[in-house]
Each structure stands twice: as structure tokens, then as C-alpha cells.
Amino acid sequence: MLRVYGLWVLTLPMLLGWGHLATAALRRMGLRGMLSGFQTIWLGLAMLMAWLMVCSLAFPIARGVLAVSWAPAIGGLLLGRSQLRFRLERRAAVATVLSLLVALAVAYAACDVVQAYDTGLYHLQAVKWVASYRAVPGLTNVHLSFGYNNASAVLGAFFDAYWEGESAHLMEGFLLSLALAHWLFEIVGARTPRGRVRQVFCLFTLPLLLWKIWTIEIASLSTDLPLTIAGYVAVLELVSLSWRVRTLTLAYVLAMAAVAMTMKLGGMALFGVTAVTVGIVVWRDSTWRVRGAIAALASLIVAAWIVRGVIASGWVLWPVFGKLPVSWAVPRDITHEHLLTIKSWARMFGHNPDDVFSHGLWYWFGPWLQSFRASRECLLLGIGVGLLAWRLASGPTGAVRRAAEWSAIAACVLGLVQWFYAAPEVRYGQWLFWMLPAVLLAPRLATTMRNPQLRPFVVMIALTTIAWSGGFTFRLDERVPSLLGAPRYPKTPTVDPTPAGPNTTIYFPTSSDQCWDYALPCSPWVLKQTLRDPDSMASGFTFAPP
After folding, report:
1. Which of 207, 170, 247 is nearest to 486 (CA)?
2. Which of 148, 250, 366, 477 is most buried, taking the most CB atoms under 10 A from its CB?
3. What is the pLDDT of residue 95?
4. Is 237 helix (H, G, I), strand (E, B) or coil?
């Protein structure tokens, strides 16, 4: 457990160095402003993600890339050494102690056995491909789930280079520990009107983040948690934009929205809203050079992500649209069938897509609604809708503050619309249900937090919400993780080497459809995958024999 904790601590100065490097580069491009310590770390994560995705196009994300990645980080630490001073005031000391204790709890939970179904199905295999080969053309033909092109697999391979085979115990826990530390500093250290907006937002999104410690996601490679964290970081900036917003802050929030979208397509609405908001803010009072600088990092992240997706599936955005005329492109009929399966299983799990959609809306909506009504998220949606009606009935606020607030609200609402249309299973949109009330309450309760008599009342509501969500429910497993040893390794499946095409053998799991961390190429989907070059898996796969 302490080895996991130590690797997280080791990663922090790397992200801080990348953040200072990104800040210096953006300032040279004409941007102005200052970022806090946590903002610099998150910007460093965005910069590192861009670097890793670009590297993955030509190299496996293994120890060589890890070693090279430290050089820019060290350079960034030297550039930003004058800003590395940390005054441990009483509030900062309290937040630091709380953060260290919470991170220990996260490390304990992260060392649990890997139980998430999708992690065994394809997450571990996706990380193994990224860690073993550069971007592989037609990899989606081996396993359709590889076409999702989640950037979290690249980040998982980066952590896997530290400690091979343990990425499921490292990546999610690190991101969650970092987010919780950031939230605690925002809650404890708020002093300004803008800081109190951030404080309230963090108070009412903290319950979900604390609850995530005690779920099976923390010892997994789930794509939902990275999306949740990156999305919350981006919206924290959106909801608290002020009149004196600096161009560097705009570049930072746009980059984090880009990270959220590349972690999982559920962040697409957030990225679109953020891009429009940033464009409106900077359009009148900035030059083309400044506009380009603000968009530079986000554009690099999105461009590298799209290129990776095209290489993996032959589609611009698989499985939604953009089939390209390349030999390895996944056939249109298989892609369409897979998309219908995703949509149908999120509505009526285990049912045939034709049965779900051929009987009309009410065939699936009634059973789905019955299940949704029993969830916490249904109550949160009702609260969010009520608060939205209250907000619509209120008067206007300042221009920039109003635009920022409404952009955050739009990100929530459009995100929920996207979620309901694509895959309305609660776990896919859980973060949005918590975020909508927080976004609506933050500007309204910010002034309340100045009042010593009313502040405890707001904090008590937040604490009650944490208890209601299960955030205080410490999970004690039957087997306590080793203090110094390795976490619990994923299962090893029984496989059957199966011919899939000329000179192509796929390891087929026989007991279930989960490959876990088995040797490549492993897939439960054996049809006509064929190596483009029989002597090299790096050459990629086509669907049918050449």
C-alpha cells in the first residue's frame, strides 16, 4: 500500500514541472495571468496527456518514454522554482493533513482486488497494447471495445511503466487523491467572493468523490472516474470565472475540458460548451495570436486523440461517425450493430437491440424509469430541476459572471441530454446529476458562506449529503492489503489459441469473455481478424482476409 502511495507522491513533482513548462510556453505565446498550485498541476496533467498521446503514435508508452518524460518536468521545475514556495498557514496545514489522511484511505481502497467487469473485459488489454506497441492500425478489429480510444488507457500505460501490471491500482487512485486534495484546499482556504463560489461547488460535489473511494472503480481502469474528475476541474473554473479573467486561465480550462472529452465521449458536451464560452470571452478583446495560444494545448490534445482513434478503428469518431477509406476500417454494419447494442443495453440490459427499439419508446422507457426512480440520481435530478427553475426566476448578475454560470449550467444540461440519448445508464452520467445542483447553488450560496451564523448550516447540509451518499462508509475488506507488498494481481483466465485468419492466432478466453492481463492478442471476439503483416503485430489488423 505504501509503495502505491509513494508512486503517487513521486508523480506530483512531474506534473508540477510539466505545468510550469506549459505555463512558460503559453506566456511566451502572449498569454497573461497566474495559476494556483493545483491549477498548475492539472495543467501539467493536460500537457503530459498531450505528450503521451503524441508519443504513442510512434512509440509504446513504456519505461523509455517514462524516463524521457522526466526531462521536461525537471526543466519546468527549474523554470518555476521561484513559485515553489509554500507558506504553511493554519488553513493550509489543516488541508494538507486532511489530504494526506484521505490519500491513505484511497491507497488502502486502491489495493483491493480488481473486480470491475470492463477492466477484465478490455481495460487491462488496452493498457497492455499501449505499453507494448505504438498505435496499432485496426486494433478495433481484435476487440471492438478498443475502438473507444479512451485517453485513460494511455495514462494507465504511463503508470504501468512505473510498476508493470499494477496500472489498475495506480491511475484511478492517483487522480482521485489529487482531486480530493484540491477540493479540500478550496473548501478550507476560501477567502474571496470568487473563492467562496468555488468553495460551495466543491462542498456539493465532494460527496460523490468521497463515495468513489469505497467503490470497485478505485481498483480498476474505469473510464467514468477520470471523466468525472477532469470534468469537475473544468467546471470549477467555468462556474467561478470573474471580470478579471486572465487568458492563461482560459487556456487551462479549455485544456481540462479537452482532457475530459478524450477520457470518455461523455465529456463531449462539456468540451463544446467550454470552447464556445472561451471563444465568446476572448473574441472581442484579443488578437489572433492570443486566440491561437489559448486553443493550442486543447487542440493538440484533441488532434492527437483523433489520430489515435483513426489508427485504431479507421473512423474519425468510432462508433458514431466518420468511416475513412482505409484498409483496416471496421465495417459499417458491425459498427452500427455495436452502437445499437450499447444504446439498448443501457436501456434494457441483456436484451436484443431489435427487441428494444422495434417496439417504440414506451417499451423500454417504462422499465428504465422504474429502475431510475429508485436511484439517488433521480432525487438529485429533481433537486437540480427545481434549482434551475429558481435560477430562471431570479434576476441577472454581472455579464461575465452570468455567462460563466450559464455556461456551467449548459454543460450540465447538454451533458444530461447526451447521456440520455446515447446510453442512459446511471453510472455513465452520475457525475452530471451531482454537478447540476452544485453549479446552481455555488453562486447563490457564496455570499452565505461569509456569514458566520449561516456558514455552519451550509456545511452541515454538505456533511449530511456526504453521509447520504455513502462517502463516510469505510470499507473493511476480508483481507487487508499488505503495507509494503504488491496489490492483488488481476485474475489469469484460461484461454484457447484460436485461428482467426491467415497466419493470425487469437487467445480466446474460455471461461468468460474477460481476458484480464493475458498475453496479446487476446479477445473474446474471434471472427476474421487478420494481421496486415504476418510477422508483426505492430502492423495492425484488418477485419477480413486480404
Report:
1. 170
2. 250
3. 85
4. helix
In the structure grid, which three cell numbers stand for residue 74, read together? 525537471
- Paired residues of 508 in beta bridges: 496
Which residue from 177, 173, 136 is spatially nearest to 155, judged by alpha carbons? 173
Output the DSSP codes for 377-432: HHHHHHHHHHHHHHHHHSPP--HHHHHHHHHHHHHHHHHHHHHHHH---HHHHHHH
Cell output for 157: 500505460
Alpha helices in 57-123 (DSSP H): 63-79, 90-110, 117-118
Integer Cα distance of 410 and 399 in angstroms: 16
**pLDDT tens by residue, 454-502:** 889 999 999 999 999 988 887 766 566 777 777 776 778 899 998 877 7
3-state secondary structure of 112: coil
| Burial grade of 431 (CB within 10 A; 0-12, 13-18, 19 or more) | buried
Q: Are 404 and 238 in contact (CB under 8 A)?
A: yes
- How many CA atoms lie less than 13 Å away from 45 in the CB half-sphere? 31
pLDDT at 527 over 90: no
In the block, which residue shows the cell 422507457?
365
pTM of the predicted model over 0.90: yes
User: CA-CA distance, 286 to 458, in Å (whole number)?
Assistant: 40
* Alpha carbons 335 and 169: distance in angstroms, whole number: 32
- Give the single-character DSSP code of 480: P
Q: Is 54 helix (H, G, I), strand (E, B) or coil?
A: helix
Strand partners, 323: 315
Whole-number Cα distances in Å, 519 to 128, 219, 221, 523:
9, 21, 18, 10
* Apex 372 CA angle, 367 and 375, nearest 5: 145
The C-alpha cell of 404 is what? 460563466
Using CA atoms in the order 227, 230, 233, 234, what is the torsion angle rounded to 10 degrees? -90
CA 265 centroid distance within chain: 10
Q: Give me the chain's average pLDDT, please.
A: 90
Q: Which three cell numbers stand for residue 384?
A: 437540480
Q: Provide Rg for the chain, Cα atoms.
A: 23
Quote the cell numbers at residue 100.
494526506
Among 112, 5, 168, which Cα is nearest to 475's? Answer: 112
CA distance 62 to 136: 15
Axis crossing angle, helix 247-263 with helix 151-162, rounded to the nearest 10: 90
Q: Tell me, what DSSP letter sits at residue 504?
A: E
